[in-house]
Amino acid sequence: MKNTIKRLLLTLGILAPGALMAQDATISTDTAIYFMAGFVLVVAVLVLVVAVIVLQVLKTIVRQEDEKKAAVQGIELPEPVSFWSRFMRKASDAVPIEEEETVLLDHNYDGIQELDNHLPPWWKWLFYMTIAFGVVYLFVYHVTDTLPLQQEEYDNQIAEAEALKAMRLKDSPKLAIDESTVQYVEDAAALASGKQVYDNNCSQCHRSDGGGSIGPNLTDEYWLHGGSIQDIFTTIKVGVPAKGMISWEPLLSPEQMQNVASYVMSMVGTNPPNPKAPQGEVYRAGEPTEEALPDSVQTVAIR
Predict the structure, then answer these.
(1) 171-230, pLDDT tens digit by residue?
(2) Contacts 24+ apart (CB under 8 A), 227-231
(3) For a Cys-Cys bond, which of 42, 149, 169, 229 suits 184, CB 3.0-4.6 Å?
(4) This model's pTM is above 0.70
């Protein structure tokens, strides 16, 4: 057993430096520290295991010698109390059954008597630890303000997320497209991309030619929620749940919503066969758009 452990320790001692040297030259200092800390922890555990095994072997040898001496003297040794039994007795501070009369109270409830046992030490120490933790918590969070409270921590995380969002929007302007910056695009590639999005997601309700089915006709001058690029983009983004149109913001990028809104505008005047009857108000470019829905209800899709 000892030889096996020695070989294992020797192998770990040889492999650990080699593993560190075999890492990429750019290995971080933290990684090396963690690796060495893990190695030291493994060695410490192995040493502890060896110590426990050696102690058990020594106890066995001592027990055998005592049994031999007792046999010569004609004395029978009592069974040794296990470590677990000793631990449980100390942890519970329970009085042995044969000694319960010493803690028996005079209370008698229909033949049921009460013992004056102490609270288990583990429970008392756990209670003391909660008190100590409460004092430390109060001092750290409310007296010295060393660590932030939940609201402050939440605010810090929101600020970090906003800063990260701003950095991403700066690096990729297309992600910054919203109702105030959206523009009608005439680029053929952008319109083709918008048509693909329309065919995959919108044609089921508005027909592939935009003539309208469950949803309204998209090829005439009548619009339920405004016909400007901003209105159409907003309708696509927030949807119209009251009429079954979901918000597409979680599924489409800002650029995709701009492309499909532009494609929808390009369908006006195409006059498909058997179009759905006009719905809403006439929209003409340059004219002010009337609010078709109150602010509290603006959550739906095209038209």
Answers:
(1) 666 677 888 889 999 999 999 999 999 999 999 999 999 999 999 999 999 999 999 999
(2) 227/265, 227/268, 227/283, 227/289, 228/283, 228/285, 228/289, 229/182, 229/183, 229/184, 229/258, 229/261, 229/262, 229/265, 230/179, 230/180, 230/182, 231/283, 231/289
(3) 229
(4) no
Across-strand partners of 104? 115
**Is the separation of the CB atoms in 264 and 191 below 8 Å?**
no
Residue 282's beta-bridge partner residues? 222
Q: How far apart are CA 83 and CA 79, in angstroms?
A: 13
Copy the structure tokens of residue 131: 């008190």
What whole-number distance in Å separates Cα of residue 20 and Cα of residue 209?
A: 65
The encoded tokens of residue 159 equal: 């600020």
Q: Kindly report the three-state secondary structure assignment for every residue of the chain.
A: CHHHHHHHHHHHHHHHHHHHHHCCCCCCHHHHHHHHHHHHHHHHHHHHHHHHHHHHHHHHHHHHHHHHHHHHHCCCCCCCCCHHHHHHHHHHCCCCHHHHHHHEEEEEECCEEEECCCCCHHHHHHHHHHHHHHHHHHHHHHHCCCCCCHHHHHHHHHHHHHHHHHHHHHHCHHHHCCCCCCCCCCCHHHHHHHHHHHHHHCHHHHCCCCCCCCCCCCCCCEECCCCCHHHHHHHHHHCEHHHCECCCCCCCCHHHHHHHHHHHHHCCCCCCCCCCCCCCEECCCCCCCCCCCCHHHCCECCC
Quick one: tokens of 49?
Answer: 């295991």
Architecture of domain 188-297: Orthogonal Bundle (1.10)
> 303: number of CA atoms within 13 Å, CB side?
27
